[in-house]
Design goal:
Structural class: alpha+beta
Oligomer: single chain
Number of helices: 5
Number of domains: 1
CATH superfamily: Gcn5-related N-acetyltransferase (GNAT)
Strand content: 25-35%
Shape: globular
Distance between the termini: 9 Å
Order of helices and strands: EEHHHEEEHEHEEE
Largest sheet: 9 strands, mixed
CATH topology: Aminopeptidase
Length: about 190
């Protein structure tokens, strides 16, 4: 299980680790605590998932992707962030990611660090392209993308920003440090 402990610039200790099925109720509670604005940004105005939806997502991630959670304190703390990617059906080297960070921890670098962890996992597993569909008025995703140091293309269609990040040839993902790395748990 991947575990990395970091301390945010405000002194808050968090851990990044692989998602487990036992995390699904905590991820549901993360959604329940999220503001409508956060849910709208994450789901493009759609409804938040229920536990059955999250279970289906976990099934798909186990077969075709990776998922991480961010927890307060140590690896078993409260889930404050969640991200995953899954392969698209059209191309096995292309993935689509998704992230949700608890409102109180947004703009603290947690989302950027989570995205960078996911991108590093994607590069390591041979993913070549990341495709995203995000709201046009979502500046945080642009900040996260710029923090990776990877080139990306974007176009606008039907009120959405379609973003394509090419990972082919990338050996690693730039990890801007919003937090101080602590000793990694083994």
């Amino acid at each position: 299980m991947l575990v990395e402990k970091v301390v945010l610039n405000d002194g808050t200790p968090v851990a990044f680790r692989s998602m487990r099925r036992a995390d699904l109720p905590a991820i549901q509670r993360l959604h329940d605590r999220a503001s409508q604005a956060s849910l709208d940004a994450r789901y493009l105005g759609g409804r938040a998932p229920d536990l059955a939806d999250l279970s289906r997502m976990a099934d798909r991630v186990e077969e075709q992707g990776a998922a991480l959670v961010v927890t307060l304190g140590g690896a078993e703390g409260q889930v404050i962030g969640f991200g995953y990617y899954v392969m698209t059906t059209a191309d096995p080297v292309t993935v689509e990611p998704a992230l949700l960070i608890e409102d109180a921890y947004q703009s603290m670098g947690v989302g950027s660090a989570l995205a960078q962890h996911l991108l590093s996992l994607a590069v390591a597993s041979g993913v070549q392209v990341v495709e995203m569909h995000v709201a046009v008025d979502n500046p945080r995703i642009m900040q996260m993308l710029r923090a990776t140091g990877l080139p990306f293309e974007q176009q606008f269609a039907y009120g959405e920003r379609e973003i394509r990040v090419v990972l082919a040839g990338a050996r690693s993902v730039h990890r801007a440090q919003p937090a101080r790395a602590a000793e990694a748990a083994r």
